[in-house]
Amino acid sequence: xxxxxxxxxxxxxxxxxxxxxxxxxxxxxxxxxxxxxxxxxxxxxxxxxxxxxxxxxxxxxxxxxxxxxxxxxxxxxxxxxxxxxxxxxxxxxxxxxxxxxxxxxxxxxxxxxxxxxxxxxxxxxxxxxxxxxxxxxxxxxxxxxxxxxxxxxxxxxxxxxxxxxxxxxxxxxxxxxxxxxxxxxxxxxxxxxxxxxxxxxxxxxxxxxxxxxxxxxxxxxxxxxxxxxxxxxxxxxxxxxxxxxxxxxxxxxxxxxxxxxxxxxxxxxxxxxxxxxxxxxxxxxx
Amino acid sequence: xxxxxxxxxxxxxxxxxxxxxxxxxxxxxxxxxxxxxxxxxxxxxxxxxxxxxxxxxxxxxxxxxxxxxxxxxxxxxxxxxxxxxxxxxxxxxxxxxxxxxxxxxxxxxxxxxxxxxxxxxxxxxxxxxxxxxxxxxxxxxxxxxxxxxxxxxxxxxxxxxxxxxxxxxxxxxxxxxxxxxxxxxxxxxxxxxxxxxxxxxxxxxxxxxxxxxxxxxxxxxxxxxxxxxxxxxxxxxxxxxxxxxxxxxxxxxxxxxxxxxxxxxxxxxxxxxxxxxxxxxxxxxxxxxxxxxxxxxxxxxxxxxxxxxxxxxxxxxxxxxxxxxxxxxxxxxxxxxxxx
Lengths: 286, 340
Hints:
With 286 residues, chain A is mainly alpha-helical. Chain A is built from eleven helices and four strands. Chain A has one domain (3-277).
C-alpha cells in the first residue's frame, strides 16, 4: 500500500468518525442552544438506537430493518421524555443536568436488565469491501459515510430553509420576541427535541455493526459531544458541525498513530485550552 | 489568640457534629452486623468526607462539579504510587504519611491548573459541570487503558495502611476498630478546618461569589482567585478522602476517578442539603447505607433508584432531606390551619 493510499484510507476513516459525531452532537447542540437544557441522557438515545438492531431482530425483522426501527423508536422515546419531563426543565440548565443524568442512569440500568450487561455483536448488513483507489475498503463504512453526509445536509437544510427552520432560528435568537410574533415555541422545542433524539438513535444504529453494543456505550459519545459543543460553541448549528469536524478529525488522526484513549485525553486538553482562549467556541463570531 | 479562639470556637461545632454522626453510625453498625461491619462503615465515613468536599464546592462556592471523583481518585493514586512499587518510588511506611499529604497536594495542583483555564475562560454553571464531568470520564478511561501506571481494569492491590511505625510508634490503622477511629478523626479534623476557613473573611467572599459574583467584582474583589482557592481546597479535601480510601481498602482502581462516583456524590450532597457540611456527610452515610441495605434485596434496581433520586431532587426542590421534611411540615400546618 502506498503512502497516498494510506492517507486516503485514513481520511475515509476519519470521515466516518466525524459523521457519527456530528449526528450525535447536533441533537445535543440544538437542545442546549434552544432550551438551555444539557441533555446527559443523549448518549443513551444513541445506545437505544444501537439496540434497535437487537429489537428489530427480536421482532422478527432481518437485514436493514434495524436502521429504520432505531431512529423511529428513539424519536418516540425522545417525544415521551420531552412531554413527560424535559419540558419542565427548559431554561433551568443546572436542574436539567441533574434530572437528565437521572434519566441516563435509569436507561442504562434498564438496558442492562432487559438486554443483559455483556456487549453484543451486531452483524454487518453490508458485507465485503469495494475497490477504491486501488485498495479494498469496507462497503458498510462507505455506506455510513454516505448516510451521514446526506442526513447532516438534510438536517442543516431543514433548519435553514423551510418555515420551520426560520421559526426555529427565531426562537434560537430571542424566544420572547418570537413568541410575541405568534410562533408557538413549545411546538418548536418539541419537534427539535425529537429530531435531535432521532439523529442520536440513527447514529447509534449506524455505529452498532462497527462496534459492539453495550448498555454503557453512550457515555463516551456524550463526552465527545460535550467537547464538540465546547470547541464549536453552542450558538449555531454551523458551530456544532464545525466543532464535530475538528474534534472528530483530531480523534481520528491521533488514534491512528496512537491509542484512542490518548486521543481523547488530547482532545479534552485542547478543549480546555480553547475555553480559555475563545470562551464562546472557535466558530462563533464575537 | 482571641482571633484564633473566635475562629476555632465557631468551628469546633462541625467536628462535634461529625463525631456524633460517626458514633451513631458505629452503634448502628455494631448492633446490626457486629464489629466486623465497622470495616464497611469506615468506607462510608471516608465517602462522607468526600461529600463534604463537594459541598464546599457546590453548597458554598456555587460551583457544581460533576467530576469531583477525579480528585478523589487522584488522591487515592498519589497515596498508592508512594506506597507500592508501581512507579518505583516506594517509600514504604514513611510513604503512608507522605502519601496522605501527596494525596492532598496532587489533586489541589491539578485543580489549580484546570481552574485557571476554566475560570479565566468564564466557564460557570452547567458548562463547568460538563467540563468537570468530561475530566472525570476521561481520567477513568485513561486509568483503564494505562495499566502500567493505574493498574488498568485489574486495579492495584496490596496498598499498605497508614502506619507510624517508622517513628517507633507501634500499631497501624489496619485493624477494623483502628481504621474506623482513624477515619472518624480525619473527617472531624477536616470538617473543623473547612469550617474555620469558611468563618474567616475569605469565607464571606465565598458566600458573596455564590450569591452575586458581579457585585463582588464591582466591589473590587478578585473573584477568580476566590473560586480558584475554593476549587483547590475542595479538591485537596477530596484527594485526602481518596488517600484515606486507598489506605483503608488497600485497593484502588480507575472507577475511583469515574463519573458514577462523581455523580453519586452529587446525590449525597443534594439529599443531605447543600451548604452545611454535616448535611453532606450524613447524606453520604444515609444513601450508602440505604444502597447497602437495598443491594441485599435487589442489586439491579439500585441504580434505577439512584436515577429516580436525581429526578426527585429536581422536582421536589433543593433543600435535601431537611428541606423536604420542613416543607411537608409547613404544608401540614397550613392544611390544619385551613381546616380549623
